[in-house]
Amino acid sequence: MLSRDLARALAISLAIGMAPSIAFADGGYTSQPLIATGKTIMGEPIIYPTTGPALITARTSTFAPGATTILHQHGVPLFTYILEGELTIDYGSSGVKTYKKGEAYVEAMHVTHMGKNLGTVPVVILAVYIGAEGAENTIPVQ
């Protein structure tokens, strides 16, 4: 059992991204931090919706080679983790970014963007929308 001070120190270091990984005393469990941020990939402050009770939606999405999403924004914070392949996101005048297997980010909310699989293998992502009942996770932009 971890002492309260050690547990607090580990939690703080994980929260600020200082610990690349931790292993607990029994050696059977490790933890690898993926991300700790208060901003989206475009530097927007993360603001939680207040339209209703909290609602977290997690899904995996697969993009075939050549697949493209519609132009869209997000009405709620979206944590994304790339499970397979490489996903390229076009943020218009804010630039283009490519995310690779094992990378995590919080997607832009108010910057219109579209995702593309420019590779030759499928892209699989884990998308976790941190929303509320009545809030739109994805908002199409014409």
Q: CATH homologous superfamily of the largest domain?
A: Jelly Rolls
Portion in beta strands = 35-45%
Gross morphology is globular
Read across the widest sheet, the strand sequence of neighbours is 3-10-5-8
Estimate nothing, just give the exact number of structural domains. 2
Tell me the distance between the termini: 55 Å
Name of the CATH first level of the largest domain: Mainly Beta
Helix content: under 10%
Sketch the topology as an H/E string, one letter per element: HEEEEEEEEEEE
Largest sheet: 4 strands, antiparallel
List how many beta strands DSSP finds.
Answer: 11
Just name the CATH architecture of the largest domain: Sandwich
Taking all Cα atoms into account, the compactness measure Rg is 17 Å
SSE blueprint:
Elements: H1 4-15, E1 22-23, E2 30-31, E3 54-63, E4 72-74, E5 78-84, E6 86-90, E7 96-100, E8 104-106, E9 114-116, E10 123-132, E11 138-140
Antiparallel strand pairs: 1-2, 3-10, 4-11, 5-8, 5-10, 6-7, 6-9
Q: Would you write up a description of this structure?
A:
The strands form four sheets. A four-stranded antiparallel β-sheet has the order 3-10-5-8, with no helix packed on it. Strands 7-6-9 form a three-stranded antiparallel β-sheet, with no helix packed on it. Helices cover 8% and strands 37% of the residues. A hairpin with a 6-residue loop joins β1 and β2 (30-31). The radius of gyration is 17 Å and the shape is globular. It starts with a helix and ends with a strand. The chain has one helix at residues 4-15, and strands at 22-23, 30-31, 54-63, 72-74, 78-84, 86-90, 96-100, 104-106, 114-116, 123-132, 138-140. It is mainly β. The chain is built from one helix and eleven strands. The longest helix has 12 residues, at 4-15.
